[in-house]
Amino acid sequence: MNLTQDDLLFRAMKHPTRRAIIAALLHHESSAAVFAAEHEITVAAVMKHLKALEDAGVITGTKRSRTKFYTLNKERLKDLQDWQDLEEVDWMDSFLL
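Below the sequence we write its predicted structure tokens.
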């Protein structure tokens, strides 16, 4: 099954740990090790979530020295907000018909 970028985005957003990563990245960049320590989960588990977010285009990783730092792609989150706004209008319109 081939997933679209939007499918990957929605799949990535459904997990609470991934939403916590996004919330943390709203304020500053971070690495997998820092996030794991702050949230008491393993680095391996964080890496799995970071990969899903990166595949969906929600975050971008940049390697500096031996550490990869992640930042939020706010444009991709805007895509999600735009979709939500559109769906809300369609849903509301269905009551008016």
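The CA atoms of residues 72 and 89 lie 27 Å apart.
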